[in-house]
Amino acid sequence: MRMPPPQFLLLGSMFSVQFGSAFANKLFDQAGPAGTVLMRLGLSALIMTAVVRPRVRSRSRADLYAVAAYGLVLGTMNWTFYEALNRLPLGVAVTIEFTGPLVVAAVGSRRLLDGLWVLLAGIGVFLLAFGGAHHGVTKVGVLLALAAGVCWAAYICTSKRVGTSFSTKDGLALALCCGTLVALPAGIIEGGTALGRPSVLAGGLGVALMSSIIPYSLELTALRRLTAATFGLLMSLSPAVAALAGVITLGQHLSTVLLVALVLVVTASVGTTLSSRRHPLAEAPATP
Which of 107-111, 162-166, 183-187, 230-234 is predicted with the least confidence, judged by mean pLDDT? Predict the structure, then answer.
């Protein structure tokens, strides 16, 4: 059987993540954002640990600290993003969060052009924060999405350290376990007895599969045959795919402000990718 083109696999990963987020939104009324995050991370950790069986006995203390930091960032990133998603339209939340990796891509560069791309994305976020009050955008939601973006930036940095000491799957499995511990207290408080309902657990399993297991598997396969430029260009479509998922799954409205902000952030992402395409892609972190 012939393998599909890697671009299709990465697009499939992207659609799975964003529609998984839209599906997660439907669980908020029963389990809350933190409870939904707990199910996503916890069930993903169980599946990954059972499949990968990561080894920790031979690891140094520095390696374990690194993977714990990776898991801390992973758990906090997902938690703040789902809390933002409870207060913002999906397309808005992802557009704001996406500024995190954009800043990482531009940091360290002394070229004026890279600074202009970040400024362009910043204008898009400003429009969402101060021009979207009539379209379901709240200031608290914007701050939470920005916090998720900061965590995404830290996630990229910590994943590099873990990637040098662990195989990709081992590192992710252990990080998911640590991330689950981060979400555990708030998840139990918000989710309560709903976390024990079979229907809610089934929904949580669906979120875990759509937002973690399936997209990560697709990315691992696609990344073996993609350049850094192609990966970055395709990932630049994430905010637009998120907005589409919000419209189709949640019936959210695409306002003019959101459309303009999407264009600004996607343009900034494409520009950043094209201006740094000389850097090779060995292995990218899993989709948050």
Answer: 107-111
CA distance 222 to 35: 31
Specify the number of domains making up the chain.
1
Please name the residues in contact with 39: beta carbons below 8 A apart, sequence gap of 6 or more: 27, 31, 187, 191, 195, 200, 201, 203, 204, 205, 207, 208
Residue 286 lies in a domain: no
pLDDT tens-digit series, residues 72-90: 999 999 999 999 999 999 9
Structural domain contains residue 1:
no
**Domain assignment present for 287:** no
**How does pLDDT run across 50-59, given as a tens digit for each residue?**
988 888 777 8
Domain boundaries, position 166: 8-275
